[in-house]
């Protein structure tokens, strides 16, 4: 086995957190929180990932408030979910793993009716494409009071996550959710101190980082998921993404999980491979939304060819820009790919679909060395499976998963 693979599989430190290896299960929405309550299936899902040997598993989309959810079957951090999250953390720890929570807010991309405001709010007024046929066609612009409240919500959610025994936090700054909306020049049209220059567009993410850091203390690992590119011409590009990473590094962030794409515009920029739209349409419960997906969904789910390590060229540029640990995400599907990522100077590897397909893949790598290749064929039907009973899973060995 190469030295690079040996390093990947050996124990490592992430901002003082001891991990048994450098592999992270990235946040992929599980679909296991019916009506916002984490299920036994969610606990089992992450415990099984830990049992397979992954160093750190990430619980996806932990909303910071009820107004920050994209739809109702997401959880937000409050005392009602405390017992289940205590159990989840304990289950992962019992398997020798560590667990992180991805703190998120939808901004103006939501089909979930907010509790405290008339419609979803983000950096600027906008068409809310996701809520268009759910009675929420417009997104509002956050006021100064909204911003202060949101900062406080992130801090409170972070303190809660630490209190229930999680080991790390990932602040979601990518994929077109709230903080990504503020960072993106295409989505942020504000004319105050939170819009315009990159420094202004980064103001809210940095203020939230500072508030979260104060809430959890200096020794608690904080990561952020950040776009390398939004995937369209007027969105965030790699030059500004690198400058954003430098600002986050100076702000005390411990690591960046590099990603890309905006779910409302360029969904397949993140995934690559086959579009799951055909499987998603029949599972949509709203008949108007289902019809809209049939007519217009192809525009947002345009297929992009899968190539292993498809973010590597962009990630190299970020690697040259910062000294902080970087987590490579994007098309790692073989041991040879793992070796290459480590040889390029990245500190950790995040995996999604390959770990859904085989939670024991690290044992396969130890046994097979550089000959190991994931069975994942990038069909992306695991994305559609989020809406199935039981939540997300690989359906390679389940040919009738979508038969109803």
TrEMBL record:
<protein>
    <submittedName>
        <fullName>NADH:flavin oxidoreductase</fullName>
    </submittedName>
</protein>
<keyword id="KW-0285">Flavoprotein</keyword>
<dbReference type="GO" id="GO:0016491">
    <property type="term" value="F:oxidoreductase activity"/>
</dbReference>
<dbReference type="Pfam" id="PF00724">
    <property type="entry name" value="Oxidored_FMN"/>
</dbReference>
<keyword id="KW-0560">Oxidoreductase</keyword>
<feature type="domain" description="NADH:flavin oxidoreductase/NADH oxidase N-terminal">
    <location>
        <begin position="7"/>
        <end position="254"/>
    </location>
</feature>
<dbReference type="InterPro" id="IPR001155">
    <property type="entry name" value="OxRdtase_FMN_N"/>
</dbReference>
<dbReference type="InterPro" id="IPR051799">
    <property type="entry name" value="NADH_flavin_oxidoreductase"/>
</dbReference>
<dbReference type="InterPro" id="IPR013785">
    <property type="entry name" value="Aldolase_TIM"/>
</dbReference>
<dbReference type="GO" id="GO:0010181">
    <property type="term" value="F:FMN binding"/>
</dbReference>
